[in-house]
């Protein structure tokens, strides 16, 4: 049966799925980090995925960090930011050091970024080599701190499809380079997320879970729209009400290792949707594991 322990979504046969809320989901809401921690704890989440700008804005208030979050029986699953890979190397490394220090303060060893600002087909061999070189520099530094760089599977980046993602991992060839597997964006690329997950499994350290009503609405997640307070939210739907079959996907996740995942919701009614989604995930995993 499903574990009823607070902050553990499911624990069966050695399987622990740890779910986080994303503070980015509340980017247009007037909620404090205290209120978000209370909400996450009350709904049975294991932690929070902290948006980089939120970590930076809290940096001067020394009250907040890993110890404070642990007082809610929560942890920071990941620090999600956008490292300036196209900036001068000194600037890029200074930002890397800044984020690394914030990640340490918040008790996470995972820093998320995107790779490049254009799709893999639009990226020249020279540009790709330069990005790979920069990833190596960042990974070398993070490795010295016991941390990992997670590249997110995302459109208009070098990880916009499965072959390019695998190529990037092989070219960089660094033990500190990992993958944040965004299920929707992998599906958007045209590959079955289950097939992609099985191929990338050795590199995956985190999952982003979200859904869409149909492919015709995928533009809703374009950065210029999704980050805008006035952007449309049409087509965004709760996890089990969209085009991606999450019941099937969750049934295929490796049950022999700990899984970290975040519910990445960008629409309205954030608290009610996240509450429904975590309850539905519990039910789906219970059906899988009975």
Question: How does this structure look, described?
Answer:
The protein has 290 residues and is of the alpha/beta class. The chain has a single domain, classed as Divalent-metal-dependent TIM barrel enzymes (TIM Barrel, Alpha-Beta Barrel), CATH 3.20.20.150. The protein has helices at 33-42, 52-57, 66-70, 89-106, 125-144, 162-172, 183-188, 193-200, 223-226, 246-252, 270-289, and strands at residues 10-12, 15-22, 47-51, 75-80, 110-113, 148-152, 177-182, 204-209, 211-212, 236-237, 259-263. Strands 2-3-4-5-6-7-8-11 form an eight-stranded parallel barrel, surrounded by four helices. It has a two-stranded antiparallel sheet with strand order 9-10. A hairpin with a 2-residue loop joins β1 (10-12) and β2 (15-22). The protein is globular, with a radius of gyration of 18 Å. The relative contact order is 0.14. Mean pLDDT is 92; it is low at 1-15.
Layout of strands and helices, then pairs:
Layout: E1 10-12, E2 15-22, H1 33-42, E3 47-51, H2 52-57, H3 66-70, E4 75-80, H4 89-106, E5 110-113, H5 125-144, E6 148-152, H6 162-172, E7 177-182, H7 183-188, H8 193-200, E8 204-209, E9 211-212, H9 223-226, E10 236-237, H10 246-252, E11 259-263, H11 270-289
Parallel strand pairs: 2-3, 2-11, 3-4, 4-5, 5-6, 6-7, 7-8, 8-11
Antiparallel strand pairs: 1-2, 9-10
Domain Xylose isomerase-like TIM barrel: 39-284
Protein name: 3-dehydroshikimate dehydratase
Pfam families: AP_endonuc_2
């Amino acid at each position: 049966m499903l574990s009823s322990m607070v902050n553990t979504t499911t624990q069966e046969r050695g399987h622990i799925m740890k779910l986080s809320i994303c503070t980015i989901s509340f980017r247009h809401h007037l909620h404090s980090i205290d209120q978000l921690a209370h909400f996450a704890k009350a709904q049975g989440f294991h932690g929070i995925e902290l948006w980089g700008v939120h970590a930076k804005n809290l940096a001067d208030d020394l009250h907040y960090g890993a110890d404070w979050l642990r007082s809610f029986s929560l942890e920071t699953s990941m620090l999600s930011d956008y490292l300036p890979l196209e900036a001068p190397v000194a600037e890029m490394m200074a930002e890397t050091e800044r984020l690394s220090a914030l990640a340490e303060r918040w008790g996470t060893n995972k820093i998320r970024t995107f790779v490049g600002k254009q799709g893999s087909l639009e990226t020249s061999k020279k540009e790709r080599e330069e990005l790979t070189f920069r990833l190596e520099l960042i990974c070398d530094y993070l490795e010295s701190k016991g941390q990992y760089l997670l590249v997110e599977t995302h459109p208009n980046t070098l990880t916009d499809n499965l072959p390019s993602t695998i190529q990037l991992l092989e070219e960089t060839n660094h033990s500190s380079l990992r993958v944040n597997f965004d299920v929707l964006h992998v599906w958007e690329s045209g590959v079955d997320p289950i097939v992609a997950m099985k191929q990338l499994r050795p590199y995956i350290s985190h999952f982003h879970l979200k859904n869409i009503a149909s492919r015709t609405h995928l533009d809703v997640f374009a950065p210029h729209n999704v980050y805008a307070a006035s952007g449309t939210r049409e087509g965004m739907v709760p996890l089990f009400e969209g085009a991606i079959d999450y019941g099937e996907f969750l049934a295929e996740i490796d049950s022999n290792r700990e899984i970290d995942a975040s519910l990445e919701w960008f629409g309205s009614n954030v608290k009610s949707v996240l509450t429904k989604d975590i309850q539905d995930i519990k039910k789906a995993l219970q059906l899988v594991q009975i």
